[in-house]
Amino acid sequence: MPEYPEIYTVVNNLKEKLVGKTISKIEVLYKNVFYDYNNEIVNKTIKDIRQMGKYILFFISDNVLISHLRMEGKYAVKDKYEPGKHTLLVMHLSSGDYVEYNDTRKFGRFELRTISNYLNTLPLSELGKTPYKLTGKELYNLISKRNLKIKQALLNQKIISGIGNIYADEILFDTKISPTRNTKDITLTECENIINSSIKIFDKSIDFGGTTIRTYSSLGEKGSNQNNLKVHTRKGEPCPVCGTIIEKITVAGRGTYYCRNCQK
DNA sequence: TAATCTGTTATGTA
DNA sequence: ATACATAACAGATT
To answer: For the segment A199-257, what is each residue's pLDDT rounded down to a tens digit?
Structure first.
């Protein structure tokens, strides 16, 4: 599911429901989902929930519980205890409700850090800035001497965080850049355009509750930004700008949609 | 039915 | 430094 707009939506929803509540018990139903689990965060209060790139951070007492949804992770907050087939973890709250972490593909992960070390240990220590914080000039400096395809650079969370396969395609279409262009050939102006487009596209998606292509939902609420996508998932359809048929190719091992006429 | 695809990331090899 | 394959896994699609 999750790129920046989807995580933003999930964090907002979780915040409303969970901040101020106390965790009374944590059940790890699938061991690998939370490899370094210990009871440090039991009987502690959730002080805040924040986002860093595609990560969700629960601030619990002096600890930071880091959650990544990977492909299909989903949260549900329920007033009944009813874990399902794909429930990998359940947080029991002293208020009487239950936070389920559901993930059919079991790719999502939880990691526990402390307030004092979470920013200087993996996975957050190497995380790049989001488009909201990164300037075009900074992006240019990060990529212009490297030998990468531009799409690959946008998917690299160490360079810029929050962009995944859907939005990479949309941003490159909006900036008229071919996904296979080498980063050495991307100009400063194009970097500035990439940042501006990223913000514009993220903001719009957030307004629509995120993009639901397969299974994404935020606490059960699906988004509708898929209706705003210009090229991603639109193979065989006419380009909304020039009418050329949208093509699907593989770049960096990922399905990539683009208009060969508009994007150079 | 079987092969192939999927919104992510980490890891190992060349 | 980068490319490429693979692994983690389940279900939908072809």
So the answer is: 999 999 999 988 887 777 788 778 888 889 999 999 989 999 999 999 999 998 899 99
Strand-by-strand arrangement of the A87-93 sheet: A23-28, A87-93, A98-102, A74-78
Give the DSSP letter string of A93-145: ETTS-EEEEE-TT---EEEEEETTTTTSSTTTTTPPBPTTT--HHHHHHHHTT
**What is the distance between the terminal CA atoms of chain A, rounded to a whole angstrom?**
29
For residue A127, what are its two tokens?
A: 């995380």
Active site includes A3? yes
Among left, alpha and beta (phi > 0; psi -120 to 50; other), residue A147 is beta
Using a cut of 0.85, tell me whether the model's pTM lies above it. yes
Report the C-alpha gap between A204 and A170 in whole angstroms. 12
Bases of chain C with protein Cβ within 7 A = 1-6, 8-12
Could you give phi then psi for residue A95, rounded to 5 degrees?
Answer: -75, -10
